[in-house]
UniProtKB/TrEMBL annotation:
GO terms for molecular function: DNA-directed DNA polymerase activity. The keyword DNA-binding applies. It comes from Sphingomonas telluris. CDD domains: PolY_Pol_IV_kappa. Its EC number is 2.7.7.7. This is DNA polymerase IV.
Length: 344
């Protein structure tokens, strides 16, 4: 989806259309999503609201409505289900689809993507961009190529050259730190990466080196998994003023634990590791974790978080953010259906 949260807000409040909008933010928060009008000023998700305001004086901050975003996401997911059962959600606004079965009889993956995009626009009033290709990695790259409201199709015979022309910073799975390391080695584009041997990449990057060697050649055998497991479920909150008092922090953590547990129940998962996230007033961030032999219930989850927090007292400086999450999750891991072949 294109600027999903912000686009939903502009759809539901016509007076916001054409204006720079940031979902989230506020006094000390961060931007959860930015409209394309705001992005022209350099406003991006995860940016502190003060920075967003500095870059765009006219930016309009809107309080998030996650219940609405989830409802729209489910509406879009229902459209996907008319074309395939193999849907792997990445977030509320993005998913991989394997349309090999051609359930709608449209003949090609391109035609299927065009039909899905049309239905999303007609039924939700929102726009979506799609990348169509033979594997996840190339499809993901293509999905960002012609945003917003665009379609990009990369056939197998074009993939090697397409990847060669892209900066490595665009590669899904290569973050800013790795991108800088690659660039320090003279690897700026896919073409540069294609010139490096498997042995060299493995020496420098370990097991990740083999992955880099494969994806720069368009080799990605990962299947679309309709039961993609969660890695973690968490919630966090940034406070309007820095907190230091143990009782006040414990009260806030209890609220955060409640939000997190609601998400855990919606996800239908169980877990054995509790992780506390703390960001101090000077933006230093630490995490503390504790693992258990069996999955936790709600009271044990909150109690573990409170114990981790209590162990930090007295805190050396004010705390601006607390988060609590559940890791080492368990859920049903059914074997995904095997992908076949369909014309792109």
């Amino acid at each position: 989806m294109d600027a999903f949260y912000a686009s939903v807000e502009q759809r539901d409040a016509p007076e916001l259309k054409g204006k720079p909008v940031a979902v989230g933010g506020g006094h000390r928060g961060v931007v959860a999503a930015a409209s394309y009008e705001a992005r022209k000023f350099g406003v991006r998700s995860a940016m502190p609201s003060v920075t967003a305001k500095r870059r765009c004086a006219d930016i309009i901050f809107v309080k998030p409505r996650f219940d609405v975003y989830r409802a729209v996401s489910q509406q879009i997911r229902a459209i996907f289900a008319d074309y395939t059962d193999l849907i792997e959600p990445l977030s509320l606004d993005e998913a991989y689809l394997d349309v090999t079965s051609d359930r709608a009889g449209l003949g090609t993956a391109r035609a299927t993507a065009e039909e899905i995009r049309r239905r999303i626009r007609d039924e939700t009033g929102l726009t979506a961009s799609a990348g169509v290709s033979y594997c996840k990695f190339v499809a993901k790259l293509a999905s960002d190529q012609n945003k917003p409201d665009g379609l990009c199709v990369i056939t197998p015979d074009r993939a090697y050259a397409y990847i060669a022309a892209l900066p490595v910073s665009r590669f899904h799975g290569i973050g800013p730190v790795t991108a800088r390391k690659l660039e320090s080695l003279g690897i700026h584009t896919g073409a540069d990466l294609q010139e490096r041997s498997l042995a060299e990449l493995e020496t420098r990057f370990g097991s990740s080196g083999r992955w880099y060697w494969r994806i720069c050649r368009g080799i990605d055998d990962r299947e679309v998994c309709s039961d993609r497991p969660y890695k973690s479920v968490s919630a966090e909150r940034t406070f309007d003023t820095d907190l230091r008092e143990p009782d006040e922090l414990a009260t806030q953590l209890a609220r955060i634990a409640g939000y997190a547990w609601d998400r855990i129940e919606r996800a239908g998962v169980a877990g054995r590791t509790v992780t506390l996230k703390v960001k101090f007033a000077d933006f230093e961030m630490i995490t503390r974790s504790r693992s258990f032999g069996t999955p936790l219930d709600r009271s044990a989850f909150e109690a573990a978080g409170q114990q981790l927090l209590a162990a930090l007292h007295p805190v050396p400086k004010g705390i601006r953010l607390l988060g609590l999450g559940l890791h080492n999750l368990t859920e049903d891991g059914a074997e995904p259906a095997r992908q076949l072949g369909l014309a792109i």
